[in-house]
Amino acid sequence: MLSRAIHERDIMGRFTDSVAVMDWQRDLQLLHHFSTYTALTMSEMDSIRRCYQVAYPRVGYSSKAVMHGILGVAALHLAHLYLDQRAKWLVISTNHQNRAISGFRLTLPTITPENCDELYTLSSLTVMLRCASLPFPSDPRHSDPIDDTCEVFMLMRGVNEILKTSYVWVAQGPISAMLVPERLGPFIPFESTDLLPLDDVGIQDRFDTLKAIALHESFDPAIRRTLLQSVAALSNCFRQIMVQPPDREPGLLLIWPIRVFPEFIFLIRQRHPAALIFLAHWCIVFHNHANFWWLGDRGQRCVSAIAEQIEPEWRDYLHWPLEYVEDDSNIGKPGVV
After folding, report:
1. Domain range for residue 153?
2. Which domain of life is it from (predicted)?
3. How far apart are CA 37 and CA 32, in angstroms?
4. CA dist., res. 231 & res. 209, Å (int)
5. Within this chain, do residues 171 and 211 fall inside the same structural domain, yes or no?
6. For residue 12, is pLDDT > 50?
7. Residue 35 near residue 55 (C-beta atoms within 8 A)
8. Start-end of H helices in 108-180
């Protein structure tokens, strides 16, 4: 064999087949799968698809970490597609993920014009790997969907920190299409607590209710401000998604995690009822994009977990999210509602 083997039974407890850590023929298969299939499933925008299909592999040719990230995503895609081979592809994907993360840690301390494309590409692949993660067959339990979503929030905020430092450089490079400037409409100021008007898309009353929740008299003033800012940012996120053309870009979903205050993520972790209600409403647009394999049923699972964990007196505010995620006809619906 070309290298030592990872035994699936060592990782998952039940499987006896061995999977080579390095196998150049298999890696070529994964790269081919990524370029000809996976890349076309990541977005509905042609410019984004081309970026995944052509620009990402080109960045990977000069970066082992990025190439491992690409191969990890391709293997995870195969794990989603072929249930009878899921164990094998999960082991392979995990191995590539670990190697990608090791390379990421070496590159991250210094962001320069020379490595900004590598860092952005690798960080975006890491977010996809986290969103698309699957449990091993020997342990089918999912981690808590709420805490898991908080981890996605933190990853996205990390991507944004890289982008804030290197936006001008990335915008001039081979992966500039990933910034989707043509889809980013007007943004409210970062710390604004004023909601964008949503009358024209038919959900103004929904957000008026969320604003009233944020202003609940039982909440501390600092918490009320954090909640108001998160609702304002959520209105911005909904508007961006609801008015985009039919060829959707799911990356717009991840605007909200970037724009909320860090304190809001803490409130989610603490299971603050208002924070959970707002998170459940964000899961509406997540469920609308569930036809993208790397997002899948994450929104539905998160809303279900919120309904189970929220204090009973607040559960009525989950009516719209619960109703929405239980209806699969909402998946892929133009304009969300």
Report:
1. 26-178
2. Eukaryota
3. 8
4. 10
5. no
6. no
7. no
8. 116-131, 145-171
